[in-house]
Amino acid sequence: MKKKKVIHMVRRTGISTAKAWSIRIIAVLLALLVCAFVIVGITGANPIAVYGGIIDGAVGTSSRTWITIRECVFLLIVAAGLTPAFKMRFWNLGAEGQILMGGLATAAVMIYLGPMLQDWLLWIIIIVVSMLSGLVWGLLPAIFKAYFNTNESLFTLMMNYVAMQIIDVAIVFWENPKGSNSVGVINQVGKEGWFPSMFGQQYLFNVILTAITMILVFSYMRYSKHGYELRVVGESYNTARYAGINVKKVIIRTMCLSSAIAGLAGAMIVAGSSHTISVSTGGGRGFTAIIVAWMSQFNPYAMIIVSLFLVFMQRGSIQIATDYGLNNNASDIITGIILFFLIGCEFFVNYRLEVTTIDEEEAKA
Amino acid sequence: MPDSNNAIELKGVTKRFGSVVANDDVSLSLKKGEILSILGENGSGKTTLMNMLSGIYFPDEGEIFVNGQEVTIRSPKDAYNLHIGMIHQHFKLINVLTAAQNIILGLPGPQRLDMKSVDEKIDELTKKYGFELDPEEKIYNMSVSQKQTVEIVKVLYRGADILILDEPTAVLTPQETERLFEVLRNMKNSGKSIIIITHKLNEVLEISDRVAVLRKGCYVGTVETKRASVESLTEMMVGQKVTLNIDRPDPVNPKPRILVKNLTVRNREGLLALDNVSFDAKSGEILGIAGISGSGQKELLEAIAGLQPIEDGQILYTDPKDNIEDLTKKSAQEIYQMQIRLSFVPEDRLGMGLVGSMGMPGNMMVRSYRNGKGPMTDRKTPADLSKRIVERLDVVTPSIDTPVRNLSGGNVQKVLVGREIASSPVVLMVAYPVRGLDINSSYQIYELLNEQKKKGTAVLCVGEDLDVLLALCDRILVLADGKVTGIVDARTATKEQIGQLMTAGASKKQEA
Fold this sequence. Notes:
heterodimer; A: ABC transporter involved in vitamin B12 uptake, BtuC; 2 domains; 2 strands; 5% strand; globular; B: alpha/beta; Rossmann fold; 3 domains; six-stranded mixed sheet; 33% helix
């Protein structure tokens, strides 16, 4: 009798945390291995040296380490902001636009109020105004979702493009120098409205803001009545109504919180790092943060690890691109390979494959 | 040696899910041209076993023989090739397509579809076995029993000789069940072999030739239906003799608690769900609500609970101190704020009563999360309550933090009922409290309802099993088409009397 091996896909009914994480770690190792082959294929260099270059690029010097930390906290604060919305199963794909609007408001405060007010007052105004503008960008889709049940993913996604257009218009007014089609560094001389350096570190203020925000968001999610309500709404509108929860109110309130935090991230980018505004101020972080939030299963500690890893690889591959005379696309390839493996391994967390031997003739019968 | 007179023979079939053994060394056979019932309590592994025949699961161990030949069934397609067709409990139909389109879905055919010949072939099948089906009717226009007909015709169209029906009568009215059984007998007479999964004992006795019994994943035995009785089958199913008697204490000092006057409600589609309904529910009694499913039971309870907009009429509540409150047009939230202890066990347990992804404490908080200090929730009280419920109601769960959707149906219901009676309700409404529960859990629930009744709670119980309602309730209100067709004394009424009221229709006048 002819024997034949057949592979079955079997859904796992439960998996231990240790096993799930070992699958993910294997995925990371495999990703690094595949990246090594790609690197050798492109550069012909010793992959170990190349990985050395990656580490060097990410944490090789104090300033590189701080850039890695800076990028990491941007991802973290956006991911923290997305968490309440996603826990409510409100698919907020508009964080990018909410960041841009927060950044736009920040730039406006710096430009128009910068010369007039004290720094500490400016910082408070920047934080409040950026959060409010992010909030408005999230409030619109939330209202439509709550009252007309429109699809929030499309709505929030479209709002990103509206935000970009508004930035384009603002650049026309704020162009500096004229004809450059960019805003340039705002208040370069007096640094009015720039977030302060702390202990000589330019980005420490952002780190502290992010840490405070994350602690507040995750306590809100876990311990507050609002957090409980939004989790129930995410599970089932019917259960929420049964529990006497006002579903419309919860949708709008949660989305306000989520988008206000994305707006704050915009302020951190503009006032705390780039000191300018353009359509690429968001830098795709509104989308990358979605990956961070989901891959860490909304666990704040996992979020730190995941975002550190992503940024580490990104920064590192920019470095090797310079070292080996490649353009920036090389780093995209490496990030892409890693994401492919990390997202792909979730299949093996949820399913296992089984091999069975069967008789060829019977299979035909 | 496998017998070629057997349409299906299973030998030593075992299926595990993680650490749970769903089927343990099961061996049974289906003779050609017979109707075999597979009987077992919930979680005894009936559906898992049949899913292995239809190619949805693959056995870990054991052999399957079809017509005396050993076979390997890896997919539903393999099952169809062996002429095995399964009609699942939850229909797998596409709503926007017609019956005929659903039936031919996935079948190879000519480039140009000839729906006319498909329709003719379907008509031929329906005529042969006595179905009623319009092939051009869209699924979303169909009743549940019509959808089931489509599912059955679908497998027949694919040439199935062996049919497996998973709890086919769970969603049908008595009349529809009778019609289905007629069809099944016709199919049997023309040589089809049929397996029917059910846990309704009287149906087993009525329709099947033999009964195979499973208990906790193990095969207990097969008996000839002629030689079986309700008692003997129950004993095989549960492994011990259980009394079929339900306790019924007399109501003590009944006082009106809920008074419904001329209540009219439209459902989400704008159709009249309740039409001029009036009744009262008294403390210390169980008021049963009977009716064919979809006669307005769901809307009635939800209207009282403040979850269903009311078009007309009045709902009045009398508290134990004889204060009367008007609950008409009050939302669930407002009723809670009025501090009215109204508990409700809805029909859709995981979709409305519970939060599936949360553990027991999170589910206790559905009722109590507002009790915390300031903006924060109190997490200790719900955890203590969970532990008490696990102990008192024997909830089987790895830990109180296990998401409740991972618990079995009976335990899910215990969590829900446990929470609802924990607030010592003045009015307790339960919808289909024992649906999908095994006998032991069912009796535990009846006991809990009786306990509440003795404490003076007004209990409203929507049920489907008339035998149970007649044994448990004090009075039974019968709904037909959204109208009250009668309120009878459960101690004197008969099943036939209630059956007539259930089908009385719109023309019948309301009785006192």
